[in-house]
Amino acid sequence: MHLAFLGAADSWYLNDLRRAAAGQHEITPVSFRDLSSTIAEGHVSVCVGNIDLSQFDAVLIRAMPPGSLEQIVFRMDAIAQLQAAGIPAINSPRAIEVAVDKYLAAARMSAAGLLVPATITCQTPEAAMAAFDKLGGDVVVKPVFGSEGRGIARLSDEALAERAFRMLAQLGGVLYVQKFIPHHGSDIRVLVIGESLLAIRRRNDRDWRTNVSRGAVAEPIELSKEMAEVARRASAAVGAEIAGVDLLPGLDGRLYAIEVNAVPGWTALAKALATDVTELVLRYVLGRVARHRG
Fold first, then answer.
1. 58, 68, 119, 124: which could form a disulfide with 88 (CB 3.0–4.6 Å)?
2. Strands across the sheet containing 242-249
3. Of 201, 192, 209, 214, nearest to 263 (Cα)?
4. What is the pLDDT of residue 209?
5. Structural contact between residues 256 and 115, judged by C-beta atoms closer than 8 angstroms
6. What phi and psi, each to the nearest 5 degrees, are found at residue 49?
7. CA geometry: angle 185, 208, 250, nearest 5 deg
8. How many of the other CB atoms lie within 10 Å of CB of 63?
9. Burial label, 234 (beta-carbon count in 10 A; 0-12, 13-18, 19+)
10. Residue 21 pLDDT
């Protein structure tokens, strides 16, 4: 099979997928920045340079580079056109759009009956300060778009909170204010690959944030029935076939669904579990193509 890898040509994931393919399948990197589309005589084509993406058996999306609103919307629309033409995209453009938007993802998970931290999303410093008070004066502020803990701050001082909200509003940001959930200094990352689940506990003794990129240590964990169920329902809520789901066991004994990443990394998880996760991902994609063909 011939797979298109939408991501950086120097990506570790591309090289490791090629290793896992062992020469039996071709994996070609293509760039979001080079996407173009032609509409003529009732036909829509999507290309990267001179490469027509309809020649591929599937598209595996492994990056979402920054761009203007117009650029990002066009990129997702173009992949959606390709998908409509019968080329599977993993994950689908809609799943990526939902997952990358923390507000929309939280709303979807809540509507699916999952427990998410109390969250108020607003646009003015005044509304954010009211949210700060309503949520108990100990909140986490996150960029609506972002990952790996970048741009996240915990605010428990009223003066600092007001200053932060005013600065974010001046920059044109949406104010995503979430109640801080006291926890044990660790969270659970579940990698969902179709029906398969792999999980690690991420513990950070130096920072309340538990991202491995922030210095957290990853260790194997056996998922409880509740954790597995919440991870499956969270990934389904955003429509992602391959997803990284962050779960937070609170000190209150409740399990919170925090975020879903539709372009998840798995290097830390693979190392902690001593598992060839890349092979599992490739096997899933190939099976997905086979099922699509019927």
1. 58
2. 217-220, 196-203, 186-193, 242-249, 255-261
3. 192
4. 66
5. yes
6. 65, -125
7. 45
8. 14
9. buried
10. 97
Please name the residues in contact with 242: beta carbons below 8 A apart, sequence gap of 6 or more: 90, 91, 191, 192, 193, 194, 262, 264, 281, 284
Q: Which two tokens stand for residue 161?
A: 């909170």
Q: Is there a contact between 116 and 150 (Cβ–Cβ < 8 Å)?
A: no
Residue matched to tokens 């204010």: 177
Quick one: pLDDT at residue 123? 95
Residues 6+ apart with CB under 8 A from 107: none
pLDDT lower than 50: segments of the chain: none
Cis preceding-peptide flag for 211 (omega within 30 of 0) = no
In this structure, the chain runs to a length of 294
Helix (H) or strand (E) holding 196: strand 196-203
Q: What is the pLDDT of residues 168-202, one digit of tens each?
A: 999 888 999 999 999 988 999 999 999 999 999 99
Using alpha carbons only, give the angle 12, 16, 22 rounded to the nearest 5 degrees: 155
Question: What global pTM score does this model have?
Answer: 0.92
- Unique residue bearing structure tokens 């944030």: 209
Residue 5 CA: distances (Å) to CA of 48, 77, 116: 12, 17, 33
Residue 140 phi/psi, 5-degree rounding, is -115, 130
